[in-house]
Each structure stands twice: as structure tokens, then as C-alpha cells.
């Protein structure tokens, strides 16, 4: 058994997080996020659901190869084919975990599975035994445990521990639980299951009633020693428990909790920004820990108090979770080594030397246009460079827009498609609209624009704009990103990035949907 004072942080941003409609990530993006999570010292990274699609399988495989310090986990229903696929995807992992699950609530067993409780127990036991052929680290989840009967949970958990499960997960799949009751459930399970001491109790809470973090913390107070959570609370429907809130609550209230995580909290803000940027899901300004206003003291009374003694109104320090004060970090004379080591401090690493070179050359371009380069600029340019280094089918060659009072905006665009340059022009309601129409005339993607959002990365009129474009075609949703000091160019880059992603074929099954 592991140290009872240690709270294991299991991050499922790449799996449950990706189940947020529109938050799909490419394999390369998943590897980048996984590396940032490793730097944050997350214990377990759930990298995906390998049977869902070839893309998911390859993403879990790529994360398993890239990550050395965290355990990499693959999700599998309690079915042989799922477990085999997960075992195969995790073959190269330094430390791999198979997470298998089956629903245990009366409504799920009767309506979804159409199985009797005896059959469910039998299938769960068989799945755990099968998973143990691939790894000693096997997690079992009782899906919809929040609405399951306690006696049945005790029965199935006892059986899967005997079969070799080392972590027992209690998911509140539909976000129905109340903190007191949920905490009591964890306590009762630990007390009533005879072999409970042979496994770690884990929770996985959804946020449908805004209680995911509260329920997770109630479980921790009652002996759960693993929390499943996501960066920025991303996840199916209203999301999962937010990693940063769970970790900082347990750390800040060390007087209340008898355990702590081993995370390097100074990496939290960098991870949050990376996930937000890649998925196109913005972080609300008043979001705890990672919102732009989380540490801003507006009222005069608060400011006065904080100046006299910061503890009067601050329970955590902004720098402890990785907020930097918009300081100028690099300039146009900074060299490649300074650039690389500063990105390293920010928790940003590169998939290849080619990506580093592309990022450095992009940095030099921006440094020519902008006197002060901040951490936020560096983060954005890395995303931009990762896109550039990838061998994408469509590339922006040039863009010229004309926007004049009283005249219809007009764009001339040149792009390269599969190595061949093509040009077109279009008029539009504004310069961005004209640019998108000109690009669309060339690529004919037949997509619908679901989201166009612009975020200025730092303050000032010379700031880079970071644009997210979300496109949909036949139910397939992708996010494209682009950053530039010129908003129209950033927009065109984001549109082209999304078009490249939509051209990659995907067929993906949902873990909690029907059979694959
Ligand atoms: O919410 C849920 O029940 C899940 C399981 C697969 C753990 O995501
Ligand atoms: Zn879930």
C-alpha cells in the first residue's frame, strides 16, 4: 500500500477532458499537454481510450513513449477487446495502468447494459484478471457509483480486489452526489469491504451541480487517496473536478486534510494556459486559482490590507501557482540558449529540434515587432511554431487585406495546398470575414464555423492576438489556433490550422456510449 499521507493526482484532461464537445486534441497536442502534466508532477496521466479510434490508440502510445516520470493510463470497458487494445497501447510505458470500468447503478445495469448484477460482477472480475496480464497496476471503476446501491458497490469492489485491482474508483458520473453523502459513501466502503486495505480508493466527480470539487474533497476527508480531475475542470458536460482547485485546497488547508499531493504547484498556470489554448476553451476571469482575476484585489480596503500584510486577504500567493507579474523576459538580442532555458522554466518542452528552431525563428520575428516579450507571448508562439513545424497540407503564404471607411473590406490570399501555390480574393463584412471567405474559396472545406474568438495575450496595442477558430463538418469538430501581432493574420492562421485538422480522418467511439 502506498503512503496514506500521499494524495494521488490522476489527471484525465486528455481523456474525459477531450469528451467536452469541441475540445478534441491531436496526438502532438496530447503529447505536449502530457509533458506539461509530467512537469507538474501529476502521478497518473489518463491519455485516452485506445479502442475508440486509431488516433486515440496512437495518442496513448505516443504519450506512453514520451512520459517517464508519471504513470500513463489507458481506459478500457470491461471487455476483452478494449483491454487488449489498452495493453498494446501502453506496451512502451515506463509505468502503465489499465483503467477498466462497468456501470453498477440499477438504471445503467437495466437500461444500458441489460445485464443482471451477477453478470456485471462476473464481467468486472474477468476484466480485471485480463488486465493483470498486461500490468500490475489495474484500476477498476464502478460507473455511476453516485447512484449505485452501497451493498452492491461493496460486493463488486471486494470481488475486483480479489481479482487484482489495486485502485477502486467511485465515479459520480452524472454529478448527482452531495458532499456529505458522498464522503459518507467513501467512509462506509472503506469500513465495510473486508479487503479494503489492499487498494486505494479514488473518486471521479462530474460538475453538473457545481459540486465536483466539493464532493472530491469530502471523499478525501473520508479516506479517498486518489482524485481524478482535469486542468481547468474540462470534461464531459459541465466538466470534471478541477485539478488546480483540488490541489490548492488540500495544500492551503493542511490543517484540515491529513494528506497532500506531490505536485509542483508553480506549474499550474502554465498548464492551464496550454490546455485553454489548445482546446479553445477560455478560462473565466473569476475562476479560482487560474482565472485572470483570481489574485487581483480591486477594492480599496482589500488593497490597503494586502499592502500592510498580504495574509489579511490572501490565502495563497499568486507566484506559488505560477502567476508571473507580466515581466519582460526576453528581448531581441536574447540567444537560443536563453530562449530554450526560459521556456524550460515555463514548463514548455519541444517534440523535436525542428519545433525548437521554428519557435526561435518566430520569437525573433516577434521581437522585431514588439519591444517587450512576456511569458504569455512565448507560450503563444510555441503553439504557433508547433503548427508550423508540422508538415501540414495547407500553409499560409501571404495575406493582404484592405479595410477603409465606407468601403467593403477585401482580402487577397495566397496559400500552398499539397505543395502547390494558389491565390484568390474575396470581399467580406470585415477584414477577417473577407480573409476567411478567400481561404474557403481555395480549400472548399465545407465546414461550419462554430466559434471565432480573439484574446489579446498581453496588454498594449502591440500585443499579440491569439485566435481560436472552431470548425465542424459532419459532427467532426476541430479547433485551430493562430497568434500574431496582426489580428487578421492570426485569424487566417487559426482558420488554416483548423482546416488542416479537419482534413485528418477520424472515427471515434465514446467510452460511455454503446458498443464499438
Ligand atoms: O464519469 C465516469 O464515470 C467516467 C468513467 C469512465 C470513470 O468517466
Ligand atoms: Zn467521467
Key features of this structure:
16 strands, 516 residues, 3-stranded antiparallel β-sheet, 16 helices, 8-stranded parallel β-barrel, metal-binding, binds 3-methyl-2-oxobutanoic acid, 4 domains, TIM Barrel, 39% helix, binds zinc ion, alpha/beta
Q: What does the model show?
A:
This protein has helices at residues 27-39, 54-66, 80-89, 106-113, 117-132, 150-163, 179-192, 212-221, 243-252, 268-279, 300-308, 336-345, 353-369, 375-389, 431-443, 487-502; strands spanning 8-11, 44-48, 71-77, 96-103, 138-143, 167-172, 200-205, 226-229, 328-330, 373-374, 394-402, 410-417, 420-427, 448-456, 465-473, 476-484. With 516 residues, it is of the alpha/beta class. The chain has four domains: 8-287, Aldolase class I (TIM Barrel); 295-325, no CATH class; 328-388, no CATH class; 391-503, 2-Layer Sandwich (Double Stranded RNA Binding Domain), CATH 3.30.160. The strands form four sheets. The chain has an eight-stranded parallel barrel with strand order 1-2-3-4-5-6-7-8, surrounded by eight helices. Strand 7 (200-205), helix 8 and strand 8 (226-229) form a beta-alpha-beta unit. Helix 1 (27-39) runs antiparallel to helix 10, helix 13 (353-369) packs across helix 14 and helix 15 runs parallel beside helix 16. The longest helix is centred in the last third of the chain and has 17 residues, at 353-369. The chain starts with 7 loop residues before the first strand and ends in a 14-residue tail after the last helix. Bound molecules: 3-methyl-2-oxobutanoic acid (KIV) and zinc ion. 3-methyl-2-oxobutanoic acid is lined by residues 16, 101, 141, 143, 169, 171, 173, 204, 206, 511. It catalyses: 3-methyl-2-oxobutanoate + acetyl-CoA + H2O = (2S)-2-isopropylmalate + CoA + H(+). This is 2-isopropylmalate synthase. Residues 395-516 are annotated as: Regulatory domain. Keywords: Acyltransferase, Amino-acid biosynthesis, Branched-chain amino acid biosynthesis, Cytoplasm, Leucine biosynthesis, Manganese, Metal-binding, Transferase.
